[in-house]
Design brief:
Blueprint (H helix, E strand, L loop, with lengths): L1 E3 L2 H14 L13 E9 L2 E9 L2 E3 L9 H23 L4 E3 L7 H9 L15
Length: about 130
């Protein structure tokens, strides 16, 4: 049976998380970024809980005829402005960026200089 997430489920999830040994912080269940949240029961016992947290996906388009020198500052300034708006306007606390396989390695190293970190987690995507 699928049901709404209850306050009591928070402690259960915290215990499951602790017992799992995972070292990542749990999201704030009360955050408006946790937009969809629920739990399931089997024979009267809660056995799963899950949520969908709103995360911003970042896109960047550049003039293919512009040099790296021409792009360096504008890319940095645009990223900073968009990040400020994402936090102030939408309340986001996390953004992601997906690089297509054909992006050259030079840009991948440049993006790290802009503060992006390659995720250690295996990421999967799903169109719904």
């Amino acid at each position: 049976m699928i049901r709404a997430f209850r306050d009591a489920d928070q402690e259960l999830v915290r215990r499951w998380h602790s017992e799992s040994g995972f070292k990542y912080p749990l999201p704030d269940f009360k955050s408006p970024l946790c937009a969809v949240i629920g739990a399931s029961e089997h024979r009267g016992r809660t056995v799963t809980a899950g949520l969908i947290k709103v995360i911003g996906e970042s896109y960047l388009w550049v003039d293919p005829n512009a040099s790296s020198e021409e792009l360096a500052r504008p890319v940095r300034d645009l990223q900073e402005a968009l990040e400020l708006d994402a936090r102030a306007v939408l309340g986001l606390d996390h953004i992601i960026c997906c690089l297509p396989p054909n992006v050259d390695k030079d840009f991948a190293s440049q993006i790290e200089r802009l503060g992006w970190q390659k995720s250690k987690w295996k990421r999967f995507a799903k169109n719904i």
